[in-house]
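Weekly puzzle thread! Below is a chain. First person to post its structure in C-alpha cell form gets bragging rights.
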Amino acid sequence: MFLGHFFSSRISATPLGLCLLVMVVLSGCATPANHISLKNAKLPPLLPVRNFVANIDHSGNYQVSPDGKQLLWSGVSRLRPALFWRNLDGTGKTQVRRFKKNSPHGFWAADSKHILYHRDDTGREQAHVYAINSADGTVRDLTPLQGITAWVAKVPEADSSHLFIAHNGRDATVFDTYRVDLETATLTRIFTNTANISHQLIADDGTTLIRVLRKGKQRVIQLPDGDKWRDLRTYSRFENFYPFQIDKPGESVLAYSNLDRDRTALVSINVDSGKERIVYEHPTVDIGSVWGGPGSRPLAVTTQDGLPAVHYLDDNTRELFAELHNDQPAGLNLYSLSRDGQTGTVSRYDHTGATTYLINKGQLEKLSESSSIKHAKHWSQPQPFSIAARDGLNIQGYVTRPLHIKQATPTIVHVHGGPWARDYWEHNDQIQFLVNRGYTVLQVNYRGSTGYGRAHRDAAKGEFAGKMHTDLLDAVDWAVEQGYSDPDKIGIMGGSYGGYATLVGLAFSPERFACGVDIVGVSDLATLLEDAPPHWLPEIDFWYSFVGDPGNKKERAAMNERSPLYRADKVTKPLLVVHGVNDPRVSVDQSDRMVEALRKSGSPVTYIRVKDEGHGFGHWKNQLKLYRLTEDFFADCLGGRSSGFDFYELGSWAF
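Winning reply:
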C-alpha cells in the first residue's frame, strides 16, 4: 500500500519530489544470487530488510496486572517503539508511552497501578529503573543517579506500594538493595553489600530469607540466625545455586541448582538441613524457565532438548493449555498470571513467530500474533542436529536451510555470544533474514554453551581458539557431508564471543572460511579482562578459569596466543567489523586495534563504528544499517542475494 501510493503518484521536481524519485530508483537495486545452487532456484520472495528490524505492526510481551484488571504490552506508535496499557474490561482508553530506541519490557508493580521498566539509552549499560503511573501516564526515574547500573531485585508478591531495587551507586563493584516507595520515589537502603554477597532471596518486608556468600573459590549458602548468619552448605564456584522463591514458609525455598549433579534442576532446599528435594530434573539438559502460580506454587518447567517442551507439575495447568499442543513443534511461555490465578497471558511460539493468548477464568482468548507470522509460509524451520566432536564430545545445534533447495548452498556459521549462553529453536529474525537471502545457517552450541550441563560448559576451560573453535569446524564438516553446504563458500559471523569466534575463524583457519562479519567482538583476551566493567570484578575469577589471568606472565602469553589481534597477518579473506562506540563490555578499542593491525598487514577489512550504541544495537536505524551491510557483504563473498537499498534508510537518516 505504501509503495503503491508512491509509484502511482506523479513526482514533481520539488526537493520532496526529488527525494521520492531517488527513493524509488534506489529501492529497486536488488542484487540477484550468483551462486550456482541459487541462480535458477525458486526461492521465496526477497523480503525487505525493514520487515526484520522495523515492523510498525509489532506487538508482544503482554502482561496482566496482579489484580487482573489491566493489560500491558509493547508495540509501535507513530513509528516509535512504545508501551501500551488498557483496562481489560474495555472501559477507558488505551494509553501509550513512546521511546527513542527499542521499547523496554515493561512489567507491573505489586500495586497494579505502576508499570516498571529498565532503560539505558546510551549503550553503556547504565540502566535506571522507571515507573509509569498507569492512571495518568506520568513517568518517574526511581534511580536518578549518575553512572549507576540499577535493576528491580524483587516485586512483592502481596499488594504493596513498594518494591526493591539493587544498584551500585555506593560501590561500582557491588550492588546494595533499596526499598522504594512508589508514591514518593524515596529510596531507603536496607542492605549494604560489604560481605561479597552474590545474590539473596528477599521477603516482602525486606528481610533476607537466604543468601549466597562468595568465599574465594567457594560459595556458601547462609541463613539469618539472629544478628549473625548460619552456614547451610558450601559448594564449588563452578556449581550453580539460585534461590528464587519460597516453597514452604519457614521450611524450604525453591531454587535452580546443579549442586552434586551435572544438570540444573528445579529443587526445594530444606532451610534446616540443607538437603535438596528434586521437584523436576530433565534427563539430558538443564531446565529453562519455571512457571509460578498463586502462592508461589510451581506450575510447569520448560526445557529445550533440540525442540521446546513443557513439563507440567499441575494437572489443571496441563488441561488448560492442552489445546495449544499439537503434533507440530512449538513452545509455550507463561508471561503473566494475576494474584488469584484467574487471569494471565501465555504465548505459543514456533519458527514462524508467536501467538499470545489471554487466560480468562480457565478459557483462552487470542490476543495477538507477532508481525513475522504474516510471512509464515516463507520461513524455514530450524532442524536440530547432534554430532560427535573430534574428541568425542556431543555437540548439538540447529541447521536452517533455504526453502525449496536441495543442492549444497553457501553457508553461514552464526555463532552465539556469551560464550555462556546457547541457541534455541525459535523464530530468529537474523537467522531467517540470512536464510531468505539464500544461505544455509548453522547455529552450534559448542562446548562452553549453557543448557547442556556443567561438564559441557566446563569443557571450554582453556579452549578459547582451541576446541571451541574446532567444534565449529566439525559442524561445518558435518554440513558438507550432508550435502547442505558448499565447502568453498562458508562464511562466519557473530556478536561478542561470536565476533571473537569470527576473528578466530579467519585468523586461525583462513583456508576454511570465505569471509566473516564480526560484531562487537573480542580481539585481545588479556585487555578484555583488564578493561572489564567494575561490577565484573567480583566474578572475574570465573573468566580466569576459562581464559587465564592477564596478571600472570605465563598465562598472559597463552592468552595472546589465543587472541586474533596477534595473528592479524594471517587474515586473508574479507572481513566486516562493526562496533558500538559506547560498549562497556568489549571496548571499541578491541576493534580499533584489530582493524589497525589488519590494515597494516594489508588484510581486506571494512570497519563501521556506531557512535550511539554499545554492546548490541537498540535503535532500529542502526539495526537496519547492520542488516544492509551484512547482506551486501555476504552477497559479494558468498553469492547470495541482496535486497538493495531499502526506502526505510531514508527514514533512518531523518532520525
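Puzzle host: Confirmed. Bonus trivia for everyone else. The longest strand covers residues 485-495.
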